[in-house]
Amino acid sequence: MGIYLPIAEMSVNVFVLLAMGAAVGFLSGMFGVGGGFLITPLLIFYNIPPAIAVATGANQVIASSISGALSHFKRGTIDFKLGFVLLIGGFFGSSLGAVVFAWLRGLGQLDLFVSILYVFFLGTVGGLMLIESINALRRSRGGVPPSLKKPGQHNWIHRLPLKMRFRASKLFVSVIPVLGIGAGIGFLAAIMGVGGGFIMVPALIYMLKVPTNVVVGTSLFQIIFVSAYTTIVHSTANQTVDVVLAFILMVGGVAGAQYGVKAGQKLRGEQLRALLALLVLAVALRLAFDLFVKPDNLYSLTSLSGRPL
Amino acid sequence: MTGRVAIVLLLWLLSASRALAQDVHSEGIQIGLSTDRISITADFAGADLTIFGAIDNTDPLLSRQGRYDVIVVLEGPARPVVVRRKDRVLGIWVNRFSMTFVNVPISYSVATTRQPQDIASPETYRQLSLGTANRHFEPEDALANPTTIDEFTTALRELKRTTGLYSENFGGVQFLSSNLFRATLPLAPNVPVGTHKARAFLFKNGLFIGESSAQLAIVKSGFEQWVFRAANQHGFVYGVFAVALAMLTGWLGRIVFRRD
Asked: Which terminus of chain B has a smaller tally of CB atoms within 10 A, N or C?
């Protein structure tokens, strides 16, 4: 069944989109990630213009994160103070991202920049996760208990000024890195159409030493608001949010996530992470491949603002 | 259909009466559209547009010999267009060179009585800026290298042809009688909204004699168009709505599936 996307201005198959949303929802439920980093590249592979894929991805992330955030809210595993500080940084980063987005689009370099960012971040995170999970799998097979990093260790980040106390996280840390992480994620959200959980969670754990029980909830809390802000900024400045496309993806995603959660409970943590790492690397490789292979047509047409024609 | 014929007939009568006062051998051309406004829905999959027209004051002998030719063009609204070319930089394909053309019709379809080379000389087409291969595009930077302008113009035409927005229908104009003709022009599924201009060119023995034009407004209707307008005119409200919809969907999903 074909459906016409009013902003992307193209006809697509609604079942393909539902399946895409469900598949990503399944994976996001299974691995506990937002799925924005999978949705946006998939949409680009499906010939949705990258500018629209990114802005619509940010919109879709809200729906896929809200359920998890509500669960964490109920359990009280959100550090609101930390979340708000991250959010302030996020608003700045996202605003800057939207400006850079429009500027790159006018230059005709947006698609390239988005692809390079994806290859870089997915490649790095996927690679690190794969190494880590393979090591963990080896250790568990060898019978040696996995060594956990001690949360008490401090690094240079903890020597920065402007310290603030975050009770729920049992942290006393400078606001500079918190604002910085928030801004970085906001920037990536605006340009890549991701929630940024896959960068936020490791950053909070390894850089700020936030206890793992509040990391996911706080990250989801921040992601919802930054994605909402990003969606509004994109729709105001660039008119690239396709609400019909986003809605179809959300419906598929919300349904798929439920089955993903059940499937995820049957797999072991390290196996799960190794699988997710392979998936992330596969997406990165596919995007990298497109960068290096000669395109079918070297020429392209856009409007003055960079909208594809 | 009756309306269409009536308009054509009226045009023909008008022009015929005018022709009486003129020299016997100054032919003229008239076209008529059955409507000046076409409304298409989002699932529009393309269609054929039929334009009727008449040539007044034809020479019966030349007409019998088939010396009259008509080319009908439907030109969409014009917009500036940037053409970019990718080149390899450090192994990666990057948009490097670009050229902006100031007034490029978004769509351009042509119907002719015969193969273009049998109607008039390439020189005539170039002067008239007529046909997908000869429509003139004005580069923003008029002082650019002519070979570069040529290269990007060719790429522009090729891309427009590939998307179906520029098309040619040789034999798409048929004479119904010695002076009435019918032109069939394809409207691509992605035909742009806006004011389109239909122009008919008359040729006699390979020489351009006259032209006539009519305007046609193409508008999109339906839900999708409403969404498009909302996004472009009320971006902020649209964004807030998109966020609210996402939150509602996520929340409803949680209630329906009860994860915890």
From this structure: N
SS3 content of chain B, % helix, strand, coil (to 5): 35, 40, 30
Establish if A207 belongs to a structural domain: yes
Q: Give the CATH number of domain B2-221; options: 2.40.110.10, 3.40.50.150, 2.60.40.420, 2.60.40.10.
A: 2.60.40.10
Strands B194-204 and B68-75 come out as antiparallel
| Pairwise CB contact (< 8 Å): A292 & B92 | yes
Whole-number average pLDDT of chain B: 83
Q: Map out the domains of chain B as residue ranges.
A: 2-221, 223-260
Query: Is residue A265 one of the residues assigned to a domain?
Result: yes
Q: pTM of the prediction?
A: 0.77
Interface of B with A in 214-253 (CB under 8 A): 224-225, 227-228, 231-232, 235-236, 238-243, 245-247, 249-253
Q: Which of A71, A112, A232 sits opposite B239 (nearest CB)?
A: A232
Note whether residue A307 is domain-resident. no
Cβ atoms of residues B46 and B71 within 8 Å: no
- Residues spanned by the domain of A43: 2-144+154-292
User: Is the Cβ pair B254, A4 closer than 8 Å?
Assistant: no
User: How many domains, in total, are found in chain A?
Assistant: 1
* Residue (of A38, A81, A69, A41) closest to A182 by Cα position: A81
**CA Rg, chain A, in Å?**
19
Residue tagged 């700020």 (tokens): A208
**Beta bridge partner(s), residue B213:** B199
- Enumerate residues 6+ apart whose C-beta is below 8 A from B22: B57
Q: Give a yes or no: residue A210 inside a domain.
A: yes
Q: Cβ A235–B238 below 8 Å, yes or no?
A: yes
Backbone phi and psi for residue A263, each to the nearest 5 degrees, phi listed first: -65, -40
Contacts of B108 in chain A (CB under 8 A): none
Q: Who among A66, A109, A235 is closest to B242 (CB)?
A: A235
Give the distance from residue B159's alpha carbon to the nearest chain A alpha carbon, in angstroms.
7
Residue B32 in contact with residue B11, Cβ under 8 Å?
yes
> How far apart are the CA of B230 and the nearest CA of chain A, in angstroms?
10
Classified as helix, coil or strand, B177 is: coil
User: Does the model's ipTM exceed the 0.85 cut?
Assistant: no
pLDDT in tens, B4-16: 444 444 445 455 5
* Mean pLDDT, 10 residues at a time, chain A of 309 residues: 80 89 84 80 87 90 84 83 90 92 87 90 88 84 54 63 76 84 90 83 81 82 89 89 92 84 75 83 89 84 75
In angstroms, the CA B230 to CA B76 distance is 23
